[in-house]
Write a structure and sequence with these properties.
The chain is built from 27 helices and 26 strands. About 35% of the residues are buried.
Length: about 775
């Protein structure tokens, strides 16, 4: 039907094959599984004497090819052997006859039907073909193993003396090149051209084989044969060095050069970056120095050099943002608004370093985040707790393997702008050891006069930190070195009062826990009285972390009731709160119900807030000794001794019998002995209890007092008046006695407390006696 030496135009069913290039004079074995191909196979057997045309798919991954997915040349072939497989596909051996050029697709369903014209082999110059054949045969005989897939079969064909046309097809089919590169042999009818292609491809493969052999020799010189894994790695390295990723590296270097120029770094930094890039370009990829330089360049490119975010320009809006997230803390909010106002007026960044000092849980870190949000600045945080190495701040020199920039520049890299809000958390927890003192390095960071030229060892140059708003936090101001403390504006965040905790709970904590647990606010109600009872009886802390956890407990138990007991609504009251939280953990001291002899009520200030403190005095026959009990600190013991000395020196003024001091032992006790107590502010309370006991006069149980006493009876100022006044009001006292010099602090006391508590100022112990001691 088809003669190899004649052109014929015909139409046959077509089968698309992929992943291989078919040639005349060879066997083509493939699996036929696609429905189009199986239909074409059956049609060829029924109506075309088992003749088909094999089309070659350009992309083997295409599952449902169209006309555009085929090469314009194919092979006319006859179905030789067909075996049906268990999966329904056919394993077919085709006998290719000759090349064909596709002219048109007559149909594409249920199978391809193709019109084509056969292309007989073309013989051009016989002498040149003979010369080419000799050259090819010589190369095949010398390099058959390295360039051919079936060297033995091909050598037998060469020695058998087959025609030039068949030799070209046989060798092309077995050549160790990709199938896509073999398509040119399929499309070329000229024998001479195919022989030239063969010679070129054989030469390429021979050259590649020589390079591989060279790589193998290079690798084997450096490694032991038993080190298999190392051998493979070295081989890969040698391949990369021989063939190289030169194009890739050149492209990478050009990209980095473009990035460096686009960053608009300071001139000297840009010159340094370009110099390091030129060094990187000359170093091999396997060099350790190459990786160090690449990391350094990436760091320079990532650092912000001129990028800035736009600050909020509406002062009212910034105030509202701070009010929305934090209750109270008026001094801090006012200071931030002042900062923004100065910036708007001057157009410059005020050189301010704020240090928020306060006990744990009062919201220092979250306040810094809110300030960043209110000012529309990027927020970056670095925790300094436990940092002992100066290099953590200044970075490591690049001479060290694995060197890194310091935490400050790492934070700037993360912020991606020159003017973030940078929080340095727990600055009072900085340590020091033989590697240096990081607090000394912080002096440069937090000094507005120096931080425009901050020096990092890794950067090896100066970096401008003057646009950064630094905020630091600390629990204990005494742990911060004096030179560092001097560079910061200290803002103290005192413990929250009960009223503040109540408001924080109502405005923030309850809503936060409901959102966190996915509970609809309509399904739970927590009474105000229950909230206040939680504050008083279930927590004793400066902040609100434990209170927040308690609301989480209530929310989870409420969800359990709603889902388990099938209730629609949960109501938490002052009476049923024990069902959610158990028994109260703490009790607030209440004022005595009646006046007593030798018992006075003092006011104490702890890190958890204020509290009342009973001081008890008893005397009995003895030798004039003084006993102090109740876990008292040294300062409090000295206050007791000073109070007793004052009374001894003024016994006649208070109508005390002198012999009592010589014939009696005095015992001063402060209840709750397991709780340590210290400080001078209980001096007047101890003195009044002593006078009461020695004169047998009762102390007014509705009066509380605080103040340090001197040997002359003067009453000196104390701290924590706001918290002490709140504790007095809570415990049911009607009046408090405070030092006159604390008059300035009365404005800090909440209005609710001031309106219900009488506050009297005292200068001397005589004033305290007049107010608090009752007549016999």
């Amino acid at each position: 039907m088809f003669k190899p030496n004649e052109k014929t135009t015909a139409t046959l069913p077509a089968i698309a094959i992929r992943g291989l290039a078919p040639f005349p004079n060879t066997d083509v074995r493939t699996e036929v599984g696609r429905s189009l191909s199986k239909s074409a196979l059956l049609e060829a057997e029924r109506n075309h004497e088992s003749h088909v045309i094999l089309l070659v798919q350009k992309n083997p991954t295409v599952e449902n090819p169209t006309q555009e997915d085929m090469l314009t040349y194919g092979i006319v072939a006859k179905i030789g052997i067909k075996i049906k497989l268990p999966n329904g596909n056919f394993k077919v051996k085709f006998d290719p006859i000759m090349r064909a050029e596709i002219q048109s697709f007559e149909q594409d369903d249920p199978f391809f039907m193709v019109k084509f014209e056969t292309r007989p082999a073309v013989q051009d110059n016989v002498d040149e073909e003979v010369a080419l054949v000799r050259m090819i045969v010589k190369q095949v005989m010398e390099n058959a193993q390295s360039i051919l897939h079936n060297p033995k079969q091909c050598l037998e064909a060469v020695q058998a003396g087959i025609s030039t046309d068949k030799l070209a097809d046989k060798l092309a089919s077995n050549l160790k090149i990709s199938e896509n590169h073999k398509f040119k042999y399929l499309e070329t009818a000229s024998i001479e051209k195919r022989l030239n292609y063969l010679l070129q491809d054989i030469e390429k493969e021979r050259h590649m084989s020589e390079i591989e052999e060279k790589i193998n020799r290079t690798v084997k010189k450096n490694i032991d044969e038993n080190q298999r894994e190392y051998y493979l790695r070295e081989k890969l390295r040698a391949i990369q060095e021989e063939l190289g990723d030169k194009v890739k590296k050149e492209s990478e270097i050009e990209t980095m050069r473009k990035q460096i120029l686009e960053k608009k770094m300071p001139k000297h930094i840009e010159e340094k970056a370009l110099y390091e890039l030129s060094r990187y370009e000359t170093l091999p990829a396997s060099s350790g120095e190459s990786g160090v330089i690449r990391t350094y360049l990436d760091f320079l490119i990532d650092l912000p050099w001129h990028e800035q975010s736009d600050d909020e320009t509406d002062i009212k809006k910034a105030e509202a943002a701070l009010e929305e997230t934090h209750f109270g803390l008026e001094k801090v909010k006012e200071r931030i608004v002042e900062y923004l106002a100065v910036k708007l007026l001057t157009g410059k960044n005020p050189q301010t370093i704020l240090c928020l000092v306060g006990p744990p849980g009062v919201g220092k870190t979250s306040l810094a985040q809110s300030i960043a949000s209110a000012l529309n600045r990027q927020f970056v945080k670095q925790s300094l707790g436990g940092v002992k190495d100066e290099s953590e701040i200044r970075g490591h020199r690049r001479t060290y393997l694995g060197a890194l920039p310091g935490r400050i520049l790492q934070g700037m890299r993360k912020a991606k702008v020159m003017n973030p809000l940078f929080l340095l958390d727990e600055i009072d927890k900085l340590g020091s050891d033989y590697k240096g003192d990081p607090s000394a390095a912080m002096l440069e960071v937090l000094d507005p006069e120096q931080n425009a030229r901050f020096s990092d060892h890794y950067l090896e140059d100066q970096y401008d930190l003057s646009q950064v708003l630094f905020i630091t936090t600390a629990n204990y101001l005494g742990n911060i070195p004096a030179p560092l403390r001097d560079r910061m504006e200290i803002i103290e965040l005192s413990s929250y009062t009960e009223i503040e905790k109540y408001n924080i709970a109502k405005k923030h904590l309850i809503r936060k826990q409901l959102e966190k647990h996915g509970l609809d606010p309509k399904k739970i109600t927590i009474d105000d009285e229950a909230v206040m009872r939680m504050v008083r009886e279930y927590t004793r802390e400066a902040g609100v972390r434990q209170l927040d956890r308690l609301f989480g407990t209530i929310t989870r138990k409420a969800i359990k009731k709603i889902l388990g007991d099938k209730v629609d609504h949960v109501h938490v009251t002052e009476d049923n709160i024990n069902d959610f939280l158990g028994k109260p953990k703490y009790t607030s001291h209440l004022a005595d119900k009646e006046p007593q002899i030798g018992v006075a009520t003092g006011l104490a200030y702890t890190q958890f807030g204020g509290d009342t403190l009973a001081v008890e005095v008893a005397y009995y026959k003895g030798s004039g000794k003084l006993s102090l009990t109740g876990s008292l600190g040294d300062v409090m013991k000295e206050s007791a001794e000073a109070a007793l000395s004052f009374i001894k020196a003024n016994y006649d003024k208070f109508s005390i019998e002198k012999h009592l001091f010589e014939d009696s032992n005095v015992h001063i006790h402060v209840p709750e002995g397991s709780i340590p107590k210290d400080g001078p502010s209980a001096g007047v309370t101890i003195a009044l209890a002593l006078i009461s006991a020695l004169t047998k006069r009762k102390v007014d149980h509705t009066i509380g007092m605080t103040g340090e006493i001197t040997l002359r009876g003067r009453v000196l100022p104390i701290g924590g008046l706001k918290e002490k006044a709140i504790a007095a009001h809570r415990s049911g006292l009607k009046m408090i006695l405070i030092p006159t010099e604390n008059k300035r602090d009365i404005d800090d006391i909440p209005d609710e407390v001031r309106n219900n508590l009488k506050i009297e100022l005292v200068d001397h112990m005589d004033d305290v006696v007049n107010y608090a001691l009752l007549e016999k």
